[in-house]
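Run folding on both entries below.
>entry_1
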Amino acid sequence: MATLAASGAAIEAMGLSPAIASKPKASKIKFGVQLNAFPIDPKRFDTFLAALGQVKQLGYQGFESGFANIQEQFTSPAEARKKIEDTGLTFFGVHIFLATPRYDPKTFIAPAALYEPIAQGGKSLGAKHLILSGAPPSTPEELQQKINGLNAAGRYARGIGLNLAYHNEYESATSAEELEELYSRTDSKLVSFLLDAGHAYRSGMNVQNFIRAHSKRIVGIHLRDYKADGHLVSLGQGTFPLQAVADTLKQIDWIGWVENEEEREDHSHTGLEVIAPAYKAMKEAFAS
């Protein structure tokens, strides 16, 4: 397991400093990270805690995790929750993303038989949100089924003290159209949104305009970046309009979580190597 001292040395070796850990000037905006970039073994909770240690040392204020990373802790959560809370990080949310065939064919999101125990387990570990991704519907009838499914999931989450946030996947013009429908037709009291601004950008959406139109229901924003050829790169090194998005969020006085999500096509998990420069890019964009 990586120690905090080792993490600090690694950060300095990259030309960064643990002193970078000051909060962004836009105090209403909090910085989080999706843990996908870290080499976490779901069978070893120490690897999860090691990732949190690095996240904290860089300067992030919270994190989001896929459910597989924490599912082993659901049977006896008290000790695990204390260790998470001792990091000083906010557990923004537990995320359920599945391969398309595993989504409920009636609702195009995770089946209730999965999201209900995940929501309960995440809540027991201190998570604030249940985050659901989903598959794209093909017809108006299927879209209505997805809307109904999200409302039902939101009702369940609220009943146990969590907030539901839908996370958009897929990168096509139709996904942008679907997202507009979900914002306008789901119950605003039950369904919030974790906008993946990178996916939305790849779909051709004007992310800044979309944020201005729907900011009241957006509780978090995922940031990711791409080269002109579409390959993923560290935030700030591609074509994603990071500064324009940051300026928009500050201009509208938005309150919420901005989360960096560093994923790669080869599914590599290089942790600090990609997370550290991404944090630096975020901090600079929101401080200017």
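>entry_2
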Amino acid sequence: MRNQSLNATRTETGDSKKPVSTGQLGFTLVETMIALVIVLVALLGVFYSFTYAILYNAGNATRTQCLATMQQEVELIRAAKFTPTQTDNSAPTSTACRTDGLRDLTGGVKTPCRIQAPNGGDFRVETTVDDDPFTTGVQTDPSTTLKEITITVRLDSPSPGWQTAVPATVILRRTRGN
């Protein structure tokens, strides 16, 4: 029976090597367009995933730099003197942080300063020293024995994404030492 169907597909010239086409071979234009749309949608999803990953990895790098900058400022505040005879009062006179390592521990809201990270990102450091943390507001009292210091570090000019939410804040309490 198989031989009979093979004979039916041979050409009239008797050429036994070339079968006669009984159906259409290949894809139609509509099938090709549908396949192309499906591939494009898949590629668009991959592209969106890469864009998402790049944006949030950049945000994580910025957050890491922000936390490193905050840690540096915390260490400088912890190193400042707060003793019965002396309280460090070395307020910066401009919006640039002092490079000599001195920080102001007298009460009040300090002038914000800018610190540039090694990769070129600028961070804004805001410091508030409250001489009476148990009272609402920021008090200035040189005779206090307890200070609450709030340090906030944020990206100076955030780019899109969640980098606008990068601010990191730490609250320290210092007691007068001997």
